[in-house]
Design a protein that fits this description.
Blueprint: E1 4-5, E2 10-11, H1 16-24, H2 27-47, H3 53-69, H4 71-84, E3 87-92, H5 95-108, E4 113-116, H6 120-124, H7 127-133, E5 137-140, H8 143-150, H9 167-178, H10 186-203, E6 206-209, E7 213-215, E8 220-225, H11 229-235, E9 239-245, E10 249-250, H12 256-268, E11 275-279, E12 293-299, H13 303-307, H14 323-326, H15 329-334, H16 345-356, H17 358-361, H18 373-377, H19 384-395, H20 412-425, H21 428-440, H22 466-483
Parallel strand pairs: 3-12, 4-5, 4-6, 6-9, 7-10, 9-12
Antiparallel strand pairs: 1-2, 7-8, 8-11
Helix pairs in contact: 2-12, 16-19
Amino acid sequence: MSVQHDSVQTYTPRDFHRQAHEALENPQIRANFRKAMDGLMTKRRDVFDDWDLETLRELGASIRLRALAKLPDLLERLEANCEANGIRVHWAEDGEEACRLIGEICRSHDATSVIKGKSMVSEEMHLNTHLEEAGIEALESDLGEYLVQLNEQTPSHIIMPAIHLNTDEISRILHDKTGTEQTRDVDTLTAAARAQLRERFMAADVGVSGVNFAVAETGTLCLVENEGNGRMTTTVPPVHIAVTGIEKVVEHLRDVPPLYALLTRSATGQHVTTYFNMISGPRKPEEHDGPEEVHLVLVDNGRSRIYQDDELLDTLRCIRCGACMNHCPVYTRVGGHTYGTTYPGPIGSILMPHLMGLEETRDLPTASSLCGACGEVCPVKIPIPDLLVRLRRESVGEGRGNVPGAGVKRSTREVAAWKGFQWLATHPRAWRGGTALAGKLKALMPARLGPWTEYRTAPRPAGESLHALVKRHRAKRATEEERS
């Protein structure tokens, strides 16, 4: 089970509805997210003004689909070229094995401290907890990750981990945990955090980072960032361990620029990020900096199972930009922790059922208004709304049932109600008779129809159907024409 901790509450996907109610009743959370999301949506819109966005999205989608179509071969090619470059490649079937492999690498170097660049896969496999249990300190170096770690939380957004915190809350956290003087000056707070982290970079035995794109053609690991912490993590410690899901591989180096353009603009509304790191091996004898060893851990953790489904395969296109979250009316109002999973928002609602099972995450596919905004802004055109509907069917035992835990039982009353509706909707005469009867008996309609009417007025059948109104209107007009 994926569990998230903060100083007040433990979050799990099973309690999504309760957690959502609590978030909706917290005006500070809603204000923080509303302000942040409005800004991100505006920046994304403006930065694409001079671009043929749909053509770029088509190109990005085709690159990702081509890579997925060749995934087994590309992974072998990536491994061969990485090894040729001096990068040691390790394969992990699940998160537990990935943690064990990283732990073994750390122990082989007598490491007692690890400095980490931002990596959602490491969050997915709970790497920090594993290292701490092994007596190895793991410190996050991304400013947002650093703040939520200090506050004993986990990220609430895959790009901006501390987006749920405002300046006053950040100031309090740094003051309480590190003794930093309380202030609302953002530059002062950032400088204080930078000074605290700079010492840790120099002292760390191992650096751990994620990977945005792994290029099979050249054996190159690409890392996108804004703060320089990724570059420090991958060059200052003597050992660098990169960890990534197997779906992050792309075929050619020329595939990276279009995806990079889509990623930065969709995520933060930037033309480019401050840093774009390309790692192709450990430090060479003539070089002055860089690690002595570079390791790449390729993590499956359920991705192979997703790969076997020709519809759900689209989930693996994701380049982790977070645009679907930024535009989702549900995520914007309840925040990321409410989902109780590593990946929140629309992408999390279609990805986490694969990783955790539908029985554990059955409410996540319903955490959507199906407005379609997530699909419209996805830079690689993942049909998120279609996949949400697919998972909704599977969660109640319909459809293909390929997701673990599919087939949660519904109540007998609910099954009977929907079966009755299905029969009526496919028999026109019965439908017309039923709706006519419902119109005559509308006064007997109950005011409450379960949870749906907690925030809505129960619908009441019209006294006369549209077909009947049109028929009566036409008859009246024909009569008037005959008289004239």
